[in-house]
From TrEMBL:
Name this polypeptide is given: F-box domain-containing protein
Lineage: Eukaryota, Viridiplantae, Streptophyta, Embryophyta, Tracheophyta
Stretch forming the signal peptide: none
PANTHER family listed in its UniProt record: BNAA05G37150D PROTEIN-RELATED (PTHR31111), F-BOX PROTEIN CPR30-LIKE (PTHR31111:SF125)
InterPro entries, alphabetized: F-box-assoc_dom_typ3, F-box-assoc_interact_dom, F-box-like_dom_sf, F-box_dom
Sequence ranges assigned to domain F-box in this UniProt record: 16-62
Source domain of life: Eukaryota
Pfam families: F-box, FBA_3
Length: 249
């Protein structure tokens, strides 16, 4: 009996390691055929499967592998404010025939009616309240908290650089002079997700402009947003920020 038990244990160990011996292309094909709600659970199969499912390539390619299904809409809900220390966003995959729960993400605390920082870029969503923001993957439920910038009035814009395969955030900060007579001046910072050092870095901008709101759109590696320019800041303009070269134009 003891020998039989030990063999069973060895078989279990062998079966577990066999998943890592499946070619990666075949693993991708298997995962692409899974229902959306099952993908996150299959990260537990093995370390290699978890690495594949969490990779940027898979996140970008998974919708293409699911092209046989109807187009789906991702919906986010925030729980009631019964306890401000535990707010969550719930993500669902929706179609005309079914609604499937994807994941739940714990959000920074705060009043949901001020929760207006929702932006999407290439599979990731930025959520935030006040100066507390995070980036999450709605398919897997994983998230990271962004480092805080300087404690001043600011606006931030979220986008994706397809050339370097990086998500980036542009932050515009308005600084008020100490004497109260001079006009406020603006600083510009960029945060690159996935970089070795995830910290804000200052950049130069040769086009003086003032932000108007958080509204923006990312198209082909550039973030577009409405600003005010001119000597008296009365001219409305559309600003383009090139994420690859980290340069406004």
């Amino acid at each position: 009996m003891m020998v039989t038990c030990s063999k069973k244990k060895k078989l279990k160990k062998g079966r577990k390691s066999n998943f890592d011996e499946i070619p990666q292309d075949l693993v991708m094909e298997i995962i692409w055929r899974l229902p959306v709600k099952s993908v996150a659970r299959f990260r537990l199969v093995s370390k290699s499967w978890a690495r594949i499912i969490s990779s940027r390539y898979f996140i970008k390619s998974f919708p293409a592998g699911s092209c046989s299904s109807q187009p789906r809409l991702l919906v986010c809900f925030t729980s009631p404010v019964s306890d401000l220390s535990s707010q969550y966003c719930y993500f669902f995959s929706w179609s005309s025939s079914s609604t499937t729960f994807l994941s739940r993400v714990k959000c920074p605390t705060g009043n949901p009616k001020f929760y207006n920082y929702h932006h999407y870029a290439n599979g990731l969503i930025r959520l935030g309240y006040d100066k507390r923001k995070l980036i999450c993957n709605p398919s897997t439920g994983k998230s990271i908290t962004l480092p805080r910038a300087r404690d001043r009035v600011s606006r931030s814009f979220f986008g994706y650089d397809p050339v370097n395969d990086h998500h980036k955030i542009l932050l515009m900060t308005r600084n008020l002079p100490n004497n109260g007579h001079e006009s406020p001046f603006y600083e510009y910072q960029v945060l690159t997700l996935g970089a070795e050092q995830s910290s804000w870095r200052m950049i130069e901008c040769n086009i003086p402009h003032r932000f108007c709101s958080n509204s923006h759109v990312c198209i082909d590696g550039a973030v577009y947003y409405v600003v005010k320019t001119g000597a008296d800041w009365s001219q409305w303009s559309l600003m383009k920020f090139d994420l690859r070269h980290v340069k406004p134009s």
